[in-house]
Amino acid sequence: MMANFAVLAEQILSFIGIYYIVSIGLNLKAGHMGIPDFGHAMFFAMGGIVVGNIVAHIAAAVAAKSVPGVTVAGVIASNTKTLSIMNTKFFPYHPLLDIGLVIFALVLSLILGGILGWIASLPALRLRGEFLAILLLTVAEGLRVIFTYTKSLMGSTPTVGLSTPALFSWTHNSGLAATIFTIIVALIVYVYVERLHNSPAGRLFRAARDDEDAAKALGKNVVTIRRDAMIIGSALAGLAGAVYALNPFLGGGSVAAVSIFNRVWWTFWPWALIILGGMASNRGTGLATIIVGVSLIWPVRLYSFKVAQVLHASALGINPDQFANALEYAFIGLIILIVQAVLPRGIIPEYPSRTLPFEKYARGKVLPPKPKEE
Amino acid sequence: MALQMTEKEEGSASDIILETRNIVKRFGGVVALAGVSIKIPRRWIVLLIGPNGSGKTTLVNVITGFLKPEEGKVIYEGRDITGVEPHIITRMGIVRTFQIPKPFINLTVLENLLAAYPPGPHENPYKAVSKRSWVKTEEEAVEKAFDILKALGMERAWDQKASELSGAELKLLEVGRALMSGAKLMILDEPAAGVNPTKAHEIFSVIRKLREERGITFLIIEHRIDIASQYVDYTYALHLGRLISQGPPQKVLNDKAVIESYIGG
Ligand SMILES: Nc1ncnc2c1ncn2[C@@H]1O[C@H](COP(=O)(O)OP(=O)(O)OP(=O)(O)O)[C@@H](O)[C@H]1O
Ligand SMILES: [Mg+2]
Hints:
- The complex is a heterodimer of chains A (374) and B (265).
- With 374 residues, chain A is mainly alpha-helical.
- Chain A is 74% helix and 1% strand.
- Chain A has a domain at 15-262.
- The termini of chain A are far apart.
- Chain B starts with 6 loop residues before the first helix and ends with a helix.
- The structure holds adenosine-5'-triphosphate and magnesium ion.
- Residues 56-57, 99 of chain B line the site of magnesium ion.
């Protein structure tokens, strides 16, 4: 019973952590910079591929020397078998290598997410509004299809995808370790985005979002500002993808194009969370992620299948997968509707970039000094 | 009659900071500018007047790179800057304000000014987490911002969001941002429109002070000629995209062609 409760808590925390990281990347682009990125999932997917494909290959190259049955080619050709050998006979016994691979995965997913973000920023510099939103959505869907059917990227069976290396197996409690890891990364990301927000650069994103012409007239290069927001926001999405793939509660030990490119999970939910939290509000996104993560995303993701069974959805000709998806769409729509009606600016509305303690300057400069008390 | 500065005027104005040569700008069938040539001597405060639709704002848009002219050239400090991108032109030292204010609407008054500080490495997002990369510049910016707010009488609104400001306050904010930019040439499109006369005089006093203390050059569009003319050195009058008069303010204001252009619309 205790153990069960611990696992539930770990699952919930993992969901909150991953959704904070992925949503805050979108918040930087859509909230702070005003870029309507409806292709956010494609940047997330980069992190999944780094772990499931690139890291697995590197690990196999090392393991092949000592572990029988492991070959580099086997990572794709006989993925399940190769990874299950490594996950039981190799990773648990090489903690240092595992830790190194985790760090490598995080760095590489940031870089690949950032590079894809940079490429996506090229149309984002010319197009605006709904044109850009549709373009990014379409590109992400196109990439999903390409990755799904490219064996060298996602393995031979599209729905199964690739098993992921168990890089926390050396701790003998992968779930707990991965949860702590996820939360730590999320906290670091929170500190990072808050520092960025409270800097001249963070303020400039918001300024250029509010009025491009005014920004130009003040000598600001709106093109590079938008590009930088695309790069950083997408890099954070890539990071989220890697964390997802490394955490067995989230990825379930594998990555497939259907999961890492999932637009409901990694584009629409993050949109709902940043709208609920308050666009351009890092704290609001945090609060929204905690509330919705506990009350909706986690239970829906894990239990919609059972609910579908209980409601005899299949008897009505609805398969449980579709049911789960429909449920998530419905909740996303519901949240956005409620926010529009009740909290148009979100739970914690956008707050100023506090670079310095402004009140101090104001007291010294603006307001007359307080009269001395007799 | 060719409109030109008299020799005496030219003599004291040998250092021309900005010049336009025969600017032509059309919008479809509308000829907004039909060959406009003006010269702005360094450290002068130059007024540009003309009835509604005479092409004043269009000329500003052409000078600052927001519009490309069909014909003609813009020469700034001896360099041809025609068609150069707006932000590059600003970095060369020309800043402009907008007739219809364009505030950073979700930012506070103070943030609006701080964002107007000249661009530089302190705005590099990849170094933003290291406070050391920006803190010194930012301290200077905050000092300057509060000084400007005080000069404009807006200091009490420093923490207010731009979306909460009145129309007159937004005009002041436009001027304030231009002052933050540290430009050599400031082009102000109706800085005192909708502002009460006392405030309008204050704005022009600040402008005079900046010219005296920092040698900034001003090109100012203003409909409130009665107030503006007390502060300026030279005036150009536009009508239907053509210059119809130029000279010291009193001379231009009494010019029959100018009076008629206003009466005739
Ligand atoms: N972007 C545009 N597209 C089409 N026509 C334009 C555009 N901008 C200006 N015009 C036209 O060009 C002419 C000059 O306009 P402009 O705004 O420069 O006048 P102005 O002197 O600034 O007038 P005001 O005193 O009302 O500000 C007008 O006939 C106007 O309708
Ligand atoms: Mg105008």
